[in-house]
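[job 4471] stage=fold_predict status=RUNNING
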Amino acid sequence: MNTKSTPMGSRSGVAQLLMVSGTRPEIIKLAPVYHALRRSNWARPIWLHTGQHGDMAAQMLECFHIRPDHLLRRVGSSLLDFAIGCRTQLESLLAHMECEVVIVQGDTESAFQGALGGFYHQVPVVHVEAGLRTYNLHRPFPEEALRQMIGRIASLHLAPTAAAARALIREGVDAKNIAVTGNTVVDAQMWACKHHGIQRQVQEPGHLLVTMHRRENWGSDVENICAAIADIAREFPTLTVVFPVHMNPLIQEPVHRLLGGLANVRLSLPLEYLAMQQALADACLVVTDSGGLQEEAPTFKVPLLVLRDETERPEVLEAGCARLVGADRRSIVQWVRHLLTDDTAFRGMQAAANPFGDGTAAYRIERRLYQMLRPEGLPD
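[job 4471] inference complete, writing structure tokens
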């Protein structure tokens, strides 16, 4: 194995920073950091895409005007095959690349493989969106475990919130290696609104937006959730339900079987990023198991019902703009009915501000990386 005792790359010239992405959410959340680093006069971001997501990732890269410097080839269809192929290609590339840090985001297999590659080559790992925890290794699975493992080998932890930073400190991470930056997902939304004209296009009340994809909801939970959505659609026949359906057959089959015949339920293919942002802007309520939508919906002041028993994003609960309803049919129906018929309750769940950030997270990350890599350039 080829290892280095000191970080690779020049310490005096322009710093080369390897950014590893593999999935659509990673691209969304790393894109603002990429552009902030490109605007700087001290850093050169090098974008590597692992191929974990295919067409969806290509759309995201184009949306955010990013042309990857390195594209890996996805090997196999299983997560194991992907991990082995990704790790092998990363090893070959890192053995011949000069970079001062490896930047990864979140909790995906691509992020873990990128962090592991940097660690094996003794290149500092920078973890964007560090510190999110449920402490239940099965929810979300496998993301909770991957995020914790990245946290054990990262050199710099960029926590999106103060709560995430406190979780890292409780785990023994030195406070000097943690920075609270806000979540770059808000930066990405503001970029999309500015560059692509995302804004509300419908009159009140808007549609009910539903998404579902997480492994822990596969099986009977999918059936229960679909049954709840069917109950809601029948009870509120003038309400339009917009449901972009995940491509996994374990989601597709029950969704189409239980909801396909309802006139006010619009089933579609998964939405690309800009279409999803527009769907959020036009929604009255979101019912989802997505972590990303928990962060994004508050930007448009849309209340959330979360189809999970726990969340690694407790800030959305503390801000009052979301409720955990799990996969319980009765609970889902009761909460949707409550919010659709009680204007005071609905208004009470509209976020005054997004608890995850103000759109300046990427700037804070760029400044913290400069402090880490170019301390000689800081004023006394």
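[job 4471] summary: The radius of gyration is 21 Å.
[job 4471] exit 0
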